[in-house]
C-alpha cells in the first residue's frame, strides 16, 4: 500500500474517531439517559475555543498567548464544556424533555453569536489559527504525523469506550438506565433522578468539549462556521444510525457516516462542476436527513442491530 | 332488571403495557335501564376496566359487545358515536372552553339540525350550568365540573353512561346531589355503569354490584344483598369499604 | 429617543406569532417540538416567489404595483398558493413521518425526526434555489413618517393590515366553528377529545393544515419585508419556540402575544444594542422564562 493512501487513511480515521468522541458524549446524554441535546455544535465549539485560546501563541486578533501544552488545553476545554452543560442542564432538566431540546438549540445559537461577535475574545469570523498540533515536529513527514495523531485519538477513544462501558455497568449506570426506562421507579428507589441526569448531561457535554478540542488541534484552525447546526445534525445522524444506547454503536456510526460523508463529498469534488458544487453539497445533506428519517422509521435500533429496542424517551 | 342485555363484556384482558394485564379476564353484562356499580379494592382494575370499555386502554383479548356490535377493534371516538358515554374521573371537561362550547363540542357528532335542541334538553337538567353558559369550564368547582362532564356525555343521548368514580373529591352533600342526578338520568331510560370507592352511596343507587378483585369479577349480586353481607366487606372490598359499610 | 423599534418589532412580532400558532398547537397535541416548522416558512416563501414569478411570466409583463405598495396581485396570489401547498407539505410530513413515530409512543423520537426533516427540507430548498437570496420586488419604498421618530414603508403597513385580517379570521375559526373548538379541545386534552367523540387524527391533520398555511403566510411576508433565503425559516425557529413557550403551550392568543414580545425585544436589541446580537434575544427571553415561570406568562397554569 502506498504511503499516500496510508496517510490519507490515518487522516480519515483520525477525523472519524474525533467524531466518535462526540457521539460517545451524545450517547451518554441521549442513549443512556434520554436527554435530548440539539445544541451539540455549541458544546463542541466551547471545547474547541477554550482549548485553542489556552494553547495558541500570542495574537492581536483574539485572546491568547497562554501557550499551554496541548493536553492541558484539551482538559480545560472538556472541563469548561462540562461546566457549561451543568448550567444549561440545571436550567432545564427539571422541566419537560423538549424544553431541554429547545434550550440546547438556543444555547448553540447563542454560542455561535458569541464566537462570531466577541472578536477580542474569539477572533470573530476569522477564527483562531496556529493551534498547536500534536507531533507538530513531524509535520513534514505526513505518514508519521498522521499515524501519530491517529494513535493518540485511537487510544483516547479506546480508553473512553472502556471507561463508559464500565460506567454503564456500575451502580451509577444502572440508576441512569432505571431513570431512562421509568422515572417513577427510579424515584421510588429513593434516588435523586435530577442529580443523576445532571451528572450524565455534564459528563456527556465534557466529552463533546474534548472532541471539539481534539478536532481543533488536528486542523490547527477553527472558525465560527465550523459550529453550525449541521454539525449537531451530523453527530445525531451518526448516533441514530449506529444505534443509540450502545457505545459500540456510537463509534461504528461515526465511522460509517463519516465514511459516507467523505466518499460522497469526494465524489462531488471530483465529478461535479465547480459552479454546482454548493448545490450538490446541499443535496448531500438532504440525503443524510432523509436517511436519518428512514432509519428512525424502519430500523429505530440503528443499522448495526446492536440493540434490539429503540431508544425510549 | 329483566331488560335486554345492552353491553356484554366477555373475558376481557386490558393493560397499559404488553404482558402486564391489569384487567384479566373480566366479564359482565349490563341490561337496559339498570344501574350497575363496579366495586373492589384499590388496584383491582376497576378504572382500567371502564377505560378499556371506553377504548382508552389496549385490550389484547376478550370481547366488548354493545347491542350486537363488537367494540374492541373500534377507536374511542367511534364507540362514543355508537352510544357509549364515558365520564372520566379527572380532567373530564375542557377547561379552556366555555360551558356551552364543551357541550357544543360533544354535540358535534349529532346531525347539525338536532344539536341546539339536544343542548337545550341537557341544560334543562342542569340549571346551574344553564345559568352561565359562557363561563370557562376551568373556573367551575369540582362538583360543577362533574355535572358538566355528565351533561357533556348526555348531550348525545348515549345508550350507556359510564362514570369513573363520580363521587371522588366531592363533599358528602355534593355526592348526594350527583347520585340523585344519576337516578333522574336512569329514569330517562339510560343504562348506567359506574366505578365507585364509595360503596355505600353506590349501592344505595345501583341495582346490582359487581366486585372486582385482581382484574376479574369475584362476586356479583343485588345491592341489598351485597350491603347486607357482613363478610363481603372484609373479603373483597378492602379497608376503605369496611370503614364505609361500618359507618 | 426614536421609537422606531415599536413599528419594526410589532410587524416582526406578528409574523413570529403567525408562525408560532402552528408550533404551539402541534406541540400541545402531539407533545413534541417540531423543528421543521421553520422550513415550512421558507418553503412557503419560495413557493410564493415561484408562483408570482410564473404569473408574471404568463402575463408576459410585470404585474402593476397596487397603489403605493410593492406588493402586486401576483404576489398575493403566490402567497395564497404558498399557503395551500405548504398546508399540503405539513400534511405529507404528518402522514409519512410524524404519525408513524407518534404511534410508537416515543414523543422525543418525533423531535429527532423533525430535526432530520428540517435539515433535509432546507438543503433541498438550497439545492433547488441556491443559497443566494431572492427578492419579491426590487422597488425601493419611500417610508412615511408617523411621528415620534417612527417611519414605516407602505409595505409594512400593508403587511400589518394583512396579518391582522388573518388573525381575525383565525380567531373566528377557532372560537366560532366546530373545527376550531375541536382543535382547542385536542390541544388541551387529546384523550378526553376522543372520549367526546372527536376523531383526533383528523383534528391533528386539520391543525397541520392550519399551521402550515399560517407558516407559509408568515414566510411570504418575511420574504416581502426582507428577502428570501433557504435559512430564513431556520433562523425563525428559536423565536417561534420562545413565543410558543412564552404564551403557554397550546394557547393561540398566547402565541401571538409571545410573538409580539419577542419581536419588540428583537427590534429594540437591533436599535439599541446592535443587529449582530439579535438572534440571541429569543434565547435570553427563553432562559429568563425557564428560570422565572416555565409554564408561560400568558397561558393559564395547567
Question: Which properties best describe this structure?
Answer:
heterotrimer, A: 313 residues, mainly alpha, 72% helix, C: 302 residues, ABC transporter involved in vitamin B12 uptake, BtuC, two-stranded antiparallel ribbon, 11 helices, 2% strand, globular
Residue share in β-strands of chain C: under 5%
Q: Quickly give the structural class of chain B.
A: alpha/beta
Choose one word for the global shape of chain B: globular
Q: Which architecture of the domain at 5-91 and 157-237 in chain B per CATH?
A: 3-Layer(aba) Sandwich
Distance between the termini of chain C: 41 Å
- Secondary structural class of chain C: mainly alpha
The largest sheet of chain B has its strands arranged as 6-7-8-3-9-10
- CATH C-level category of chain C: Mainly Alpha
Q: Could you walk me through the main structural features you see in this protein, from its secondary elements to its overall organization?
A:
- The complex is a heterotrimer of chains A (313), B (247) and C (302).
- Chain A is mainly alpha-helical and 313 residues long.
- Chain A has one domain.
- Chain A has helices at 3-31, 40-55, 70-92, 97-117, 119-122, 142-169, 171-181, 183-188, 193-219, 229-242, 247-271, 277-298.
- In chain A, helix 1 (3-31) packs parallel to helix 6 (142-169), helix 1 (3-31) packs across helix 11 (247-271) and helix 7 packs across helix 9.
- Chain A starts with a helix and ends in a 15-residue tail after the last helix.
- Chain B has 247 residues and is α/β, with parallel strands linked by helices.
- Chain B has a domain at 5-91 and 157-237: 3-Layer(aba) Sandwich (Rossmann fold).
- Helix content of chain B is 40%, strand content 24%.
- Chain B has 10 helices and 10 strands.
- In chain B, strand 1 (5-14) and strand 2 form a beta hairpin.
- In chain B, helix 3 packs across helix 4 and helix 3 (99-107) packs parallel to helix 6 (142-154).
- Chain C has a two-stranded antiparallel sheet.
- In chain C, 56% of the residues are buried.
- Chain C has one domain: Orthogonal Bundle (ABC transporter involved in vitamin B12 uptake, BtuC).
- Chain C has helices at residues 4-30, 37-59, 73-103, 107-129, 154-176, 178-188, 190-195, 200-225, 232-246, 252-272, 278-292; strands at 144-147, 150-152.
- The model of chain C has no long low-confidence stretch (mean pLDDT 89).
- Chain C is mostly helical.
- Chains in contact: A-C, B-C.
- Chains A and C meet through helix 4, helix 10 and helix 12 of A and helix 3, helix 4, helix 9 and helix 11 of C.
Amino acid at each position: 500500500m502506498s504511503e499516500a493512501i496510508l496517510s490519507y487513511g490515518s487522516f480519515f480515521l483520525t477525523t472519524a474517531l474525533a467524531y466518535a468522541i462526540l457521539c460517545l458524549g451524545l450517547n451518554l446524554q441521549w442513549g443512556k439517559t434520554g436527554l435530548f441535546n440539539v445544541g451539540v455544535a455549541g458544546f463542541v465549539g466551547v471545547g474547541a475555543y477554550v482549548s485553542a485560546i489556552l494553547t495558541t501563541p500570542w495574537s492581536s486578533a483574539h485572546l491568547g498567548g497562554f501557550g499551554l501544552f496541548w493536553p492541558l488545553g484539551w482538559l480545560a476545554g472538556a472541563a469548561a464544556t462540562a461546566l457549561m452543560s451543568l448550567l444549561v442542564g440545571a436550567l432545564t432538566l427539571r422541566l419537560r424533555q423538549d424544553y431541554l431540546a429547545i434550550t440546547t438549540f438556543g444555547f448553540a445559537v447563542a454560542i455561535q453569536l458569541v464566537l462570531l461577535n466577541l472578536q477580542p475574545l474569539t477572533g470573530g469570523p476569522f477564527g483562531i489559527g496556529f493551534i498547536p498540533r500534536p507531533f507538530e515536529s513531524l509535520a513534514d513527514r505526513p505518514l508519521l504525523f498522521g499515524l501519530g495523531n491517529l494513535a493518540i485519538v485511537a487510544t483516547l477513544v479506546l480508553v473512553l469506550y472502556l471507561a463508559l462501558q464500565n460506567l454503564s455497568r456500575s451502580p451509577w449506570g444502572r440508576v441512569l438506565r432505571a431513570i431512562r426506562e421509568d422515572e417513577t421507579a427510579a424515584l421510588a428507589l429513593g434516588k435523586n433522578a435530577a442529580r443523576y441526569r445532571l451528572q450524565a448531561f455534564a459528563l456527556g457535554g465534557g466529552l463533546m468539549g474534548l472532541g471539539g478540542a481534539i478536532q481543533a488541534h488536528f486542523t490547527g484552525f477553527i472558525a465560527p462556521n465550523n459550529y453550525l447546526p449541521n454539525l449537531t445534525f451530523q453527530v445525531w445522524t451518526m448516533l441514530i444510525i449506529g444505534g443509540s444506547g450502545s457505545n459500540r454503536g456510537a463509534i461504528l456510526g461515526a465511522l460509517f457516516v463519516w465514511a459516507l460523508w467523505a466518499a460522497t463529498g469526494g465524489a462531488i469534488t471530483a465529478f461535479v462542476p465547480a459552479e454546482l458544487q454548493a448545490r450538490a453539497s446541499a443535496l448531500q445533506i438532504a440525503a443524510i436527513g432523509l436517511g436519518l428519517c428512514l432509519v428512525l422509521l424502519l430500523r429505530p435500533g440503528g443499522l448495526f442491530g446492536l440493540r434490539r429496542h429503540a431508544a425510549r424517551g | 332488571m329483566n331488560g335486554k342485555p345492552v353491553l356484554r363484556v366477555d373475558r376481557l384482558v386490558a393493560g397499559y403495557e404488553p404482558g402486564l394485564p391489569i384487567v384479566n379476564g373480566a366479564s359482565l353484562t349490563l341490561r337496559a335501564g339498570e344501574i350497575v356499580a363496579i366495586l373492589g379494592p384499590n388496584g383491582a382494575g376497576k378504572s382500567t376496566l371502564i377505560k378499556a370499555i371506553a377504548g382508552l386502554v389496549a385490550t389484547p383479548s376478550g370481547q366488548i359487545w354493545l347491542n350486537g356490535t363488537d367494540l374492541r377493534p373500534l377507536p374511542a371516538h367511534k364507540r362514543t358515536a355508537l352510544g357509549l358515554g364515558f365520564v372520566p374521573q379527572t380532567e373530564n371537561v375542557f377547561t379552556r372552553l366555555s360551558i356551552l362550547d364543551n357541550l357544543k363540542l360533544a354535540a358535534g357528532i349529532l346531525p347539525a339540525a338536532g344539536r341546539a335542541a339536544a343542548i337545550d334538553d341537557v341544560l334543562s337538567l342542569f340549571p346551574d350550568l344553564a345559568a352561565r353558559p359562557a363561563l370557562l369550564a376551568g373556573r367551575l368547582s369540582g362538583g360543577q365540573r362533574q355535572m358538566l362532564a355528565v351533561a357533556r356525555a348526555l348531550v348525545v343521548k348515549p345508550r350507556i353512561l359510564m362514570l369513573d368514580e363520580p363521587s371522588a373529591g366531592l363533599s358528602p352533600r355534593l355526592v348526594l346531589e350527583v347520585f340523585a342526578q344519576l337516578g333522574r338520568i336512569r329514569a330517562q331510560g339510560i343504562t348506567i355503569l359506574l366505578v365507585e370507592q364509595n360503596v355505600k352511596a353506590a349501592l344505595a343507587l345501583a341495582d346490582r354490584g359487581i366486585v372486582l378483585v385482581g382484574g376479574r369479577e369475584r362476586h356479583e349480586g343485588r345491592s341489598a344483598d351485597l350491603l347486607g353481607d357482613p363478610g363481603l366487606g372484609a373479603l373483597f372490598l378492602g379497608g376503605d369499604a369496611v370503614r364505609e359499610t361500618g359507618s | 429617543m426614536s421609537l422606531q423599534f415599536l413599528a419594526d418589532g410589532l410587524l416582526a412580532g406578528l409574523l413570529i406569532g403567525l408562525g408560532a400558532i402552528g408550533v404551539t398547537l402541534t406541540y400541545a397535541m402531539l407533545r413534541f417540538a417540531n423543528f421543521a416548522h421553520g422550513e415550512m416558512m421558507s418553503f412557503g416563501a419560495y413557493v410564493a416567489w415561484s408562483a408570482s414569478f410564473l404569473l408574471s411570466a404568463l402575463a408576459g409583463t410585470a404585474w402593476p404595483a397596487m397603489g403605493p405598495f410593492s406588493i402586486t396581485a401576483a404576489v398575493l396570489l403566490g402567497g395564497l398558493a404558498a399557503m395551500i401547498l405548504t398546508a399540503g407539505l405539513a400534511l405529507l410530513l404528518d402522514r409519512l413521518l410524524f404519525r408513524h413515530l407518534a404511534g410508537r409512543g416515543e414523543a422525543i423520537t418525533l423531535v429527532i425526526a423533525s430535526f432530520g426533516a428540517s435539515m433535509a427540507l432546507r438543503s433541498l430548498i438550497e439545492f433547488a434555489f441556491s443559497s443566494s437570496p431572492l427578492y419579491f420586488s426590487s422597488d425601493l419604498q419611500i417610508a412615511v413618517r408617523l411621528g415620534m421618530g417612527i417611519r414605516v414603508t407602505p409595505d409594512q403597513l400593508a403587511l400589518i393590515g394583512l396579518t391582522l385580517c388573518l388573525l381575525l379570521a383565525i380567531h373566528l375559526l377557532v372560537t366560532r366553528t366546530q373545527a376550531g373548538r375541536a382543535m382547542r379541545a385536542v390541544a388541551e386534552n387529546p384523550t378526553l377529545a376522543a372520549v367526546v367523540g372527536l376523531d383526533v387524527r383528523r383534528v391533528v391533520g386539520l391543525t397541520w393544515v392550519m399551521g402550515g398555511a399560517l407558516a407559509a403566510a408568515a414566510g411570504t411576508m418575511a420574504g416581502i419585508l426582507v428577502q428570501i433565503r433557504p435559512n430564513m425559516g431556520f433562523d425563525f425557529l428559536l423565536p417561534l419556540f420562545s413565543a410558543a413557550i412564552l404564551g403557554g403551550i397550546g394557547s393561540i392568543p398566547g402565541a401571538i402575544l409571545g410573538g409580539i414580545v419577542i419581536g419588540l425585544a428583537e427590534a429594540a436589541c437591533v436599535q439599541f444594542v446592535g443587529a449582530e446580537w439579535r438572534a440571541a434575544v429569543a434565547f435570553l427571553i427563553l432562559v429568563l422564562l425557564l428560570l422565572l415561570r416555565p409554564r408561560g406568562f400568558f397561558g393559564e397554569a395547567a
